[in-house]
């Protein structure tokens, strides 16, 4: 992925190293090709969509790299609120300004997201509605999202769309979710996208 984007935008390994060094990157003069390289990589890992940051994918990445560290996760969400809405006429500039803001606001978080995605293959789209893009349905590889067609068929055949663990819900008549119930000192709800 990195090689394809680097070849497309004629980017050297030294320029890529510059992107990973927050203090040097923030003071460097960045070429348009390097900005477009950032956009290319962002698209390839699913974090950058048409003209802007992909909110859901980015928030999931923040959750993934800050598991069981609420303060770190909160800091990531604050950085997302600060950096996530950047929008310029040029998508390469938007990608660059968003990345630059992330490096200013939460460099460790950005570094961890890069490390988690290093070596990932190109992500085009999920093959089925239930199979997520890599690392987007769960916070840990301990509990991966696995499609269970038998359970889905059983839920679909029930008139109330419920089972012992949860139920189907549809929001705004457009997106269907499975809302799972578990008891954690009171009723709590965990929502999984299908």
Jot down its keywords.
194 residues, alpha+beta, 3-stranded antiparallel beta sheet, two-stranded antiparallel sheet, 13% strand, elongated, disordered C terminus
Structural class: alpha+beta
> Ranges with pLDDT <50 over ≥5 residues?
120-139, 186-194
| Straight-line N-to-C gap | 27 Å
Give the overall silhouette.
elongated
Number of E-state strands: 5
Number of individual domains:
2
- Gyration radius (Cα, Å) is 19 Å
Question: Would you identify the CATH H-level superfamily of the largest domain?
Answer: Pheromone/general odorant binding protein domain
Summed up, what is this model?
About 50% of the residues lie in helices and about 15% in strands.
Structural notes for this entry:
This protein is an alpha+beta fold. It folds into two domains: 2-117, Pheromone/general odorant binding protein domain (Recoverin, domain 1, Orthogonal Bundle); 149-193, no CATH class. The protein is 49% helix and 13% strand. The chain has helices spanning 2-9, 13-20, 22-27, 32-44, 55-65, 70-83, 91-105, 107-117, 149-157; strands at 48-49, 52-53, 166-171, 175-183, 187-193. The longest helix is centred in the middle third of the chain and has 15 residues, at 91-105. The protein is elongated and about 60 Å long.
Topology at a glance:
Blueprint: H1 2-9, H2 13-20, H3 22-27, H4 32-44, E1 48-49, E2 52-53, H5 55-65, H6 70-83, H7 91-105, H8 107-117, H9 149-157, E3 166-171, E4 175-183, E5 187-193
Antiparallel strand pairs: 1-2, 3-4, 4-5
């Amino acid at each position: 992925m990195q090689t394809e984007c680097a070849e497309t935008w004629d980017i050297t390994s030294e320029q890529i190293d510059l992107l990973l060094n927050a203090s040097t990157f923030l003071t460097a003069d960045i070429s348009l090709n390097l900005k477009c390289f950032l956009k290319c990589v962002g698209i390839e890992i699913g974090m950058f969509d048409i003209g802007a940051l992909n909110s859901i994918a980015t928030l999931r990445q923040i959750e993934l790299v800050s598991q069981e560290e609420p303060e770190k996760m909160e800091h990531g969400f604050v950085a997302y609120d600060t950096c996530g809405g950047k929008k310029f006429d040029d998508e390469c500039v938007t990608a660059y300004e968003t990345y630059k803001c992330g490096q200013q606001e939460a460099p460790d978080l950005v570094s961890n997201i890069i490390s988690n995605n290093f070596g990932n293959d190109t992500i085009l789209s999920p093959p089925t509605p239930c199979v997520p893009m890599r690392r987007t349905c769960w916070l840990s590889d301990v509990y991966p999202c696995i499609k269970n067609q038998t359970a889905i068929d059983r839920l679909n055949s029930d008139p109330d769309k419920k089972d012992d663990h949860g139920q189907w819900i549809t929001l705004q008549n457009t997106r269907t979710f499975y809302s799972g119930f578990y008891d954690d000192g009171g009723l709590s709800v965990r929502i999984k996208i299908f």
